[in-house]
Design goal:
mainly alpha; flat; 110 residues; 3 helices; 2 domains
Length: 110
């Protein structure tokens, strides 16, 4: 019975997601309001290219800044991973140590 309920719930979820996903339209690059003649409103292609050129120049002028993602910083990717690992590892270690003793520990295993 549990398999039947799980299968039915899964099918309902798949069809519901498919139904609502149809309404979500993704635009790869929206360049502003497009008129009937094909002209764009604000933020034209030339403006976008100029902004990208300035970004490249700023990155070349400041090579020490890198990509802007601080991997080894405490606020970055590796720092957050180390901090999360230390916190959850400490909690797991405490559970393992406490699990070896107590009134529910198996006899003869420590």
């Amino acid at each position: 019975m549990n398999k039947t309920i799980l299968l039915a719930a899964s099918l309902i979820a798949v069809f519901t997601i498919g139904y609502y996903a149809e309404n979500a339209i993704a635009f790869a690059q929206y360049m502003g309001n497009v008129g009937s003649q094909g002209e764009t409103g604000e933020y034209t292609l030339e403006e976008a290219l100029e902004i990208q050129r300035r970004r490249i120049e700023a990155a070349e002028a400041n090579p020490a800044s890198g990509s802007g993602t601080p991997y080894l910083d405490a606020n970055g990717v590796a720092g957050a991973a180390v901090i999360a690992g230390a916190v959850f590892g400490g909690i797991a270690g405490a559970f393992f140590i406490r699990g070896r003793s107590g009134k529910y520990a198996a006899m003869g295993r420590g």
